[in-house]
Specification:
It contains three helices and four strands; from the N terminus they run ββαββαα. The chain is α+β, with helices and mostly antiparallel strands. It is globular, with a radius of gyration of 13 Å.
């Protein structure tokens, strides 16, 4: 899973996903923050959300690092991300560069 995850400057992991991924795990491809329809979005463990690029960028600008969140993220994120992506046997398109 680490090959696919990226991190914000605060250390929070996220996974870029496409509409087909969202629909396959049972999502509606609608941003959890602003309700915009999404063709692509960001799955963010620490927020327990999938959000559109605009909301993601806004969140990254104002997010703060909390060590207790990073500890929880390190412990549980792989299972959480795998649940979303492997549900429906959807393959990720590209690895993180």
């Amino acid at each position: 899973m680490e090959d696919y995850l990226s991190k914000t400057p605060q250390g929070y992991t996220y996974l870029p996903v496409k509409r087909k991924h969202m629909l396959n795990w049972g999502g509606l491809a609608v941003c959890d923050y602003c309700n915009a329809d999404m063709e692509q979005g960001y799955l963010v463990y620490i927020l327990n959300s999938c959000i559109c690029p605009d909301c993601f960028n806004d969140w990254v600008k104002r997010a703060q690092t909390y060590t207790e969140d990073l500890k929880m993220q390190d412990e549980y994120q792989d299972e959480w991300y795998c649940h979303h992506i492997n549900f429906g046997h959807v393959e990720l398109d590209v690895k993180r560069s």
